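Lab notebook, entry 327. We have the chain sequence and a SMILES string for 2-acetamido-2-deoxy-beta-D-glucopyranose, and the next step in the workflow is to get a structural model of the bound complex before anyone spends time on docking refinements. Request logged below.

Task: model protein plus 2-acetamido-2-deoxy-beta-D-glucopyranose, output structure tokens.
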Amino acid sequence: MTNPLTSLMTMLLKRLRYIIALLGSMTILLVLYIQNSAVFFFTCKRAQRASHICLEDRGNSSWFSERYKPTVPLLLNSTNSELHANIFSWWNELQHVPNVANYTEVVNQLFSLFPDEEHYSDAGPDRCRTCAVVGNSGNLLGSNYGQLIDSYDFVIRINKGPTENYEMDVGSKTTHRILYPESAVDLNDNTHLVLLPFKVLDMQWLISAFTTKKITQTYKEVPSTIKASKDKVMILHPEFMRYVHDNWAEGHGRYPSTGFLALIFALHICDKVNVFGFGANSNGNWHHYFDETLASFESSSHGGDFEIQTINHLNQENKISMYKGLT
Ligand SMILES: *[C@@H]1O[C@H](CO)[C@@H](O)[C@H](O)[C@H]1NC(C)=O
Ligand SMILES: *[C@@H]1O[C@H](CO)[C@@H](O)[C@H](O)[C@H]1NC(C)=O
Ligand SMILES: *[C@@H]1O[C@H](CO)[C@@H](O)[C@H](O)[C@H]1NC(C)=O
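Result returned:
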């Protein structure tokens, strides 16, 4: 005869095991659910914040859309290198040097040495790339912009503009440096050297600087070599230079300044463009933050005044954000 108490206990124990198993699997499911929704929540938060940063600029401006041409080639590669005759003759006459080499042959050499790719073709509503374009104006001095500048995805610097000893005001990160042989400086391994070519000889110099080191002279003495990563080299497209000259400088000056080209380049590869170190300082003087010599900006070969007007217009239209330093 079985004890009724014992059979009750056995039954309860069976149920209990069942209940424990049920509770266990429910807990596991709950943990998985919370984990997933947390990931989902934070991903959304980040995307929301990112797209908010980028969306605030997407105004509707006919002034902008008349000038902005999304299809212009930005960087040279072996398949887009052929130039329309009118662009080639404009570009080839920007700076005169003797013994001009065959453009086609030099380009072929370029892309046997440097990356032959299509860069930054990822534009779209989901991309949110923030960029700082850092000019060389004296208005950076005392600005304390360093940390802010370093917080952007891309930091594009121009010519010789140094970071060392100016970190507080200009930051220390450099993802891209736009330069030409006469303005060349050594780069960090993680910086893209972006050549701004004004002549076939500039492309030959780039090849020489990474190989034979034989070219030491253009219209003036240039460094025979440069410290930089060969696999990070990029070359601005002559057609892009012409486009900036026609559409954005509206033909003012002989050709656009490096800073202006850098800014329009950023407009094409970034979704949010923040501009530092452009224009005069608060006394109305034009000078570089790293030397006190006054630059005679107005009389140079660039349409300086007009470029600044265009930059201010871009700022008014919220296409860029200008940081003007101490005012
Ligand atoms: C955008 O601008 C164009 C041209 O100025 C105009 O025709 C169009 O209606 C505008 N769209 C919106 C949404 O404001
Ligand atoms: C330049 O070189 C290319 C390829 O070698 C050749 O087809 C072309 O005719 C040359 N151009 C001139 C102007 O010599
Ligand atoms: C070169 O760039 C163009 C865009 O300017 C692109 O369509 C083409 O695919 C690129 N070629 C290579 C070899 O990456």
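Notes for the group: Residues 60, 62 surround 2-acetamido-2-deoxy-beta-D-glucopyranose (ligand 1) (CB under 6 Å). Worth checking against the assay data. Residues 40-49 have pLDDT under 50 and may be disordered.
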